[in-house]
Amino acid sequence: MKTSVRRILLYDKTILVLSFAILLTIILTFMSVIYARSFKSRNDQLISQLSEMQSLSGNVNQIKAIVESKESKMGLKKTSGIVSALEQILKTHGLEAKVIKPTGKTKIDEFTEDNAELEIESTDLNSIVNLLYKIDVSPVPLKIKTASVRSTFEDPDKFTLKLTVSLMSRG
Fold first, then answer.
1. Beta-carbon contacts of residue 112 (< 8 Å; ≥ 6 apart)
2. Same domain, residue pair 91 and 40
3. pTM higher than 0.85 for the full model?
4. Of 54, 70, 136, 163, which is most buried with the most CB atoms under 10 A?
5. Rounded distance between C-alpha atoms, residue 86 and residue 150, angstroms
6. Would you tell me how many other CB atoms lie within 10 Å of the CB of residue 90?
7. Closest CA to 89 of 49, 116, 59, 68
8. Distance CA 29, CA 89 (A)
9. Whether residues 58 and 122 fall in one domain
């Protein structure tokens, strides 16, 4: 019996080719299953990375929209400099400055800081608070660097305000 099976397998070429083809099909199927599983796990990893990137992209788009709205808001009131910006704010409050003088420009990275000194005499605390608030919420990016408030000798209810204000601009 052993010899007949051996003889059939070795001498009958059709059976030999068919058995080799079946063995090759089994090996290729097994390898395909293994590769398909590894590709599926890699695909799942990439899908999770993509969803994370899309959520971060949404956050970036929101921040970009906020920045663009702030920049457009700043662009609504174009000022030629720090002095004109301060004059516009003072005009809205009906205040007059004794001194408004530019003190120079400073370049910080991609921004330019334009400084000015402002002095207002004989004003009350309510006007000072309103002025500081208006400078703080101004559409033009102003920053108060120093502030000094002193009462006058003649009338203790009147004050002298000295500010150093800077205008931030790009470029």
1. 105, 106, 168, 169, 170, 171
2. no
3. no
4. 163
5. 20
6. 17
7. 116
8. 79
9. no
pLDDT digits (tens, 9 = 90+) for 121-147: 888 889 999 999 998 888 788 889 999
Domain count along the chain: 2
Q: Give the pair of three-digit tokens for residue 53.
A: 């990137």
The pLDDT tens digits of the residues spanning 48-91 come to 999 999 989 988 899 888 888 776 665 544 557 888 888 888 88
What is the domain-level CATH number for residue 146? Answer: 3.30.70.60
Count of beta carbons in the 10 Å neighbourhood of residue 75: 10
Q: Which residues contact 150 (CB under 8 A, 6 or more apart)?
A: 159, 160, 162
Structural domain range at position 25: 2-73
Give the C-alpha separation, 82 to 142, whole Å: 8
Which residues sit opposite 151 in a β-bridge? 159
Residue 93 and residue 153 share a domain: yes
Q: Which amino acid is at 99?
A: V
